[in-house]
Amino acid sequence: MKDHISDAENLLSASAFSDGVDRRVFLKAAMGSGFAVAALPVVAQTQIQTSTEGLDAADHIVVINGQDVPVYRAQPKDRTNLPVILVISEIFGVHEHIKDVARRFAKAGYLAVAPDLFVRQGDATKTPMPELMSKIISKTPDAQVMSDLDTVVKWTKQRGGNTDKLGITGFCWGGRITWLYAAHNPDVKAGVAWYGRLVGESNPLQPKHPIDVAQNLKVPVLGLYGAKDGGIPLDTVERMRTALNAGNSKSQIHVYPNSGHAFHADYRPSFNAADAKDGWSKALNWFATHGVA
Asked: What is the rounded end-to-end Cα distance, in angstroms, of the chain?
């Protein structure tokens, strides 16, 4: 979790707290902004806002084993039998940026769904650091995440999604989950993992990491990473590449030499517009090439 902790702490250190703004006022404003408290401050100049024009987009509740799980859905209006993309959030939960990414996929012709995979542990969008890491992220079991995603896939099929054309993409924490879910669910046709952590110590809640499933992976996953990512050293990326090459999933990894962590996050200082645009193009092409279109 070190990469996520340091990344989020760096964001907070640059926040309004350092300017003497009252914490209660700051948090109240943050909760109304659509962005997660722990992800602030937002860089408005680069933030992409995708309209809902031509889309059917809404928040839903999916009941999973008695638990209400919020899900954000976006798709083109008046169309059915659409290919499905699971959009997996960063540690910050399903806030405005993740919803916008879902709308971008909908504009590209997909039924995109972004489930709140932390809901049993708390509200990631309203929890500041360091409580977010200690009380929510570290307490969320991988097995719970895999099971919730299985149910969400079934829900999308009930809503007219074509789960024979199922893809998954995720960012940061969600990048790691993308690798793991591609190994968990053989019905996934392709995945795109954005700067997801690849190695780590095993524990009862997170028993395996992407490096542990790489060689036996069957689903083609495209990994998009930044060479300047201080939390995901390049040697771990190369270890992952070697493990993938020893298998037969035809997965690939692309490293952007001028980017660090979260280079796709257009609301953060880490955003690299050129690499984000290229990565998005690569992602759409990857899904189209591997039967998710």
From this structure: 34
The least confident of 22-26, 132-136, 264-268, 272-276 is: 22-26
Active site residue 172: yes
Q: What is the CATH number of the domain that holds 259?
A: 3.40.50.1820
Burial of 190 (0-12, 13-18, 19+ CB in 10 A): buried
Tens-place pLDDT, residues 279-288 = 999 999 999 9
Instruction: Look up 229 and say whether it is catalytic.
Output: yes
User: Contact at 8 Å (CB) between 196 and 172?
Assistant: yes
Catalytic residue among 172, 209, 275, 290: 172
Cα 253 from Cα 226, distance rounded (Å): 11
User: What residue numbers bound the domain in which 36 lies?
Assistant: 2-289
Instruction: List the one residue out of 18, 45, 14, 15 whose CA is nearest residue 29.
Output: 15
The percent of residues above 90 in pLDDT, for the chain, comes to 88
| 266 catalytic residue (yes or no) | no
Check 116, 142, 229, 266 and give the catalytic one: 229
**Which is the catalytic residue, given 261, 264, 266, 290?**
261
What total of structural domains would you count in the chain?
A: 1
The predicted-structure confidence for 73-132, as pLDDT tens digits, reads as follows 999 999 999 999 999 999 999 999 999 999 999 999 999 999 999 999 999 999 999 999
Rounded to two decimals, what is the model's pTM? Answer: 0.90
